[in-house]
């Protein structure tokens, strides 16, 4: 792996040049990008603020997949969590700065994040591939049907019956059931083999077409932000494979903990040992702006 001595200003200068030289940009992103934008699933203080009842039970973060909870607590958690991270109308400055950085360059997004933050902050929804799902949908847990449903009305119904003191949904009739078979439902995100991926496949095919039909010699820049080793086969390794396959591709890997890049791609990769917020600060703050003239 290639992990040279890191200097933020030098990296920012290289990225500016590579952005200017690129014909196309592929943004790839993992959980580290949303964490840098203020949605850190490991943030214990924020967890305590949003879920005091669960905190009293000894839970400390939003990484609750696999934790057995009774349905009233489980759906209380999902309602508050999804409302906070998926349906908040507040624009996110970090994602907006990233969108401004790309500008009018031909670009696509591929992300393991399921929070909808790209589409909610200026990126074209039809150019975003989310192979891990979307908090904006739910599905039958079995599943009895390949159909999925909009989760926003479900979340609103759950929140109307939610008691923040107990952390529970107090009205059993508000707990969701499959509209088709009446069985249990799950949020439409990739956890196990029951995950329904059909809503996301068309975007994946369009992305493959975009990559596969690029003219010979197209200079592709892959900006990878916050993708570590939780699910490296979704974002991290495909970016490396794409860089190997396309001789004019370059890869920028922005990750404070694991910025390493393969040695066989030396010269076409840039490891950046910083989070997205600090890098965007370096890219967008005019460090060398001329000083104003002061009249005598």
UniProtKB/TrEMBL annotation:
Deacetylase sirtuin-type domain sequence ranges: 5-296
PROSITE patterns the UniProt entry points to: SIRTUIN
Keywords of the record: Metal-binding, NAD, Zinc
InterPro entries reported for this sequence: DHS-like_NAD/FAD-binding_dom, Ssirtuin_cat_dom
Annotated Zn(2+) binding sites: 140, 144, 178, 181
An example Gene Ontology molecular-function term: metal ion binding
Protein name: NAD-dependent protein deacetylase of SIR2 family
């Amino acid at each position: 792996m290639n992990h040279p001595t890191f200097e933020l200003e030098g990296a920012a200068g290289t990225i500016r040049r590579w952005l200017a030289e690129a014909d196309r940009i592929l943004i790839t992103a993992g959980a580290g990008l949303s964490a840098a934008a203020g949605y850190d699933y490991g943030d214990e203080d924020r967890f305590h603020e949003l879920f005091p009842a669960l905190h009293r039970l000894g839970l400390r973060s939003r990484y609750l997949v696999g934790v057995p909870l009774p349905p009233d607590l489980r759906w209380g958690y999902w309602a508050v969590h999804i409302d906070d991270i998926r349906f908040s109308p507040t624009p996110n400055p970090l994602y907006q700065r990233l969108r401004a950085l790309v500008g009018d360059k031909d670009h696509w997004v591929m992300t393991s994040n399921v929070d909808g933050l790209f589409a909610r902050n200026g990126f074209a929804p039809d150019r975003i591939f989310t192979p891990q799902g979307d908090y904006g949908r739910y599905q039958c847990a079995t599943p009895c049907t390949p159909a999925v449903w909009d989760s926003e009305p479900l979340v609103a119904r759950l929140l109307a019956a939610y008691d923040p003191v107990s952390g529970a949904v107090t009205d059993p009739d508000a707990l969701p059931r499959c509209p088709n078979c009446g069985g249990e439902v799950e949020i439409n995100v990739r956890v196990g083999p029951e995950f329904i991926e059909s809503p996301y496949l068309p975007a994946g095919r369009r992305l493959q077409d975009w990559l596969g039909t690029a003219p010979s010699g197209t200079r592709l820049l892959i900006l990878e932000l916050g993708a570590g080793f939780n699910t490296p086969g979704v974002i991290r390794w495909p970016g490396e494979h794409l860089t190997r396959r396309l001789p004019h591709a370059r890869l920028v890997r922005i990750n404070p903990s694991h910025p390493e890049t393969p040695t066989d791609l030396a010269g076409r990769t840039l490891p950046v040992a910083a989070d997205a917020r600090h890098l965007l600060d370096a890219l967008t703050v005019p460090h060398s702006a001329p000083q104003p003239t002061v009249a005598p």
